[in-house]
Design goal:
The protein is about 30% helix and about 20% strand. By secondary structure, the protein is an alpha/beta fold. It has a single domain, classed as Rossmann fold, CATH 3.40.50.720. The strands form two sheets. The protein has a four-stranded mixed β-sheet, sandwiched between helices. The protein is globular, with a radius of gyration of 14 Å. The N and C termini lie far apart (about 30 Å).
Length: about 120
């Protein structure tokens, strides 16, 4: 990554990686890996690659995404947990949060989650 020249990277992962899986809620954390375990494993490996790089990175771990209009009612941070396991984060809210991390040093080399 360093040779390609970017100074900043914001990577979209999933809250279902083992480190934060419990924050998705018990049902989702138990059932989802049975169906998308390979997808989760891919994110684990990609996170490892990003975190090992020397650039400024943020790994955003999202709950399930939905197509509802932006409502701004999401929570984001390194210690947030889903309050509704079945609620979906509007993609527009995810995009807004990811763009905001570009100018917010709080999340440089951090792994915030975004949930409802």
């Amino acid at each position: 990554m360093e040779t390609a020249g970017p100074r900043r990277l914001v990577y979209l992962s999933t809250i279902l990686v083992p480190e934060t899986r419990a924050r998705a809620g018990r049902f989702v954390a138990t059932v989802a890996p049975l169906f998308i375990g390979n997808h989760i494993a891919d994110h684990v490996e990609k996170e490892r690659t990003v975190a090992a790089s020397a650039i400024d990175w943020t790994i955003v771990r999202s709950a399930k995404l939905g197509n509802a209009p932006s409502n701004g009612r999401y929570q984001a941070g390194t210690d947030v947990a889903a309050t509704n396991q079945l609620a979906m984060v509007p993609r527009a809210d995810l995009a807004r949060f990811m763009l905001s991390t570009l100018d917010d040093d709080r999340f440089v080399r951090a792994k915030p989650a975004i949930v409802i």
